Structures are given as C-alpha cells and as structure tokens.
Amino acid sequence: MLGERSLDAGTGWPIASGWVRPLPTLRVVVVARTHWAGLDAAQDFTQQWLAGDLSESRLLGLVLVDDGPKLLDQQQRAVKRLLRKVPIGAHLPWVESWRIHPPDFERPPRRLQKIIRTFHHKAEEDNA
User: Over the stretch 26-49, which tens digit does the pLDDT of each residue have?
Assistant: First the structure.
C-alpha cells in the first residue's frame, strides 16, 4: 500500500539492525482494525509510545481500519481518542469490495490516496 520501500513488520515494533553505523532510523506507520482486539492493541501501543518505550524507530502515525460497515458509538469514540495521541492519525472506513476482492492499490479509494500522500510527505520531511 505504501510502496516498494515499505515493509510489513507484523506485530512487532521495528528496529534497524546490521553493520552500518549509525543505524538508520526507521519510520513506522502502525495499522490496526477497529474491532476490540485491534483497538486494545492500539491502546497498548500508544501508551508505550507516549511513555517513550519505543524510541528505536520514529512513529509517523497510526491508521485505524474499520472492521465493519458501521462503527458503534464506543468504537467511534475509541478511534477519535487514539488518533489524537499520535503525530498523524488516519481512519480508513469500511471498503465493502475488499471483503471478496484484494485491494487494488493501483486505484485505491480517494480517502486512502490522501492517507498515503500524507505519510509519504511526512517521511520526506523527516529525510530532509
């Protein structure tokens, strides 16, 4: 989704390694779903990040992806609260076609295009 220079680190906080010094600073976009497990994980993550426990890489932001066509009020409140805690917070609404077809990142929804541009711009600013 974010391009060829992006990697999926799974559920761990990425840390650069290797022989090159200084180690590069990795720029990270955290993604979670809006179901209970995703929101719980995002809450734990933001608490660790705000406490300074995840300093080896640089957080660009958090993307929360809807887990269904309509969020409950409690989910909406959690999304707003979590996205305010990070440098860039983005919310990707439900995309019905992704239930039966893989996402087409050549022609993503407009909202996703905006999210991608925002993160690329922030990463470029950090490189400058």
Answer: 889 999 999 999 999 999 999 999
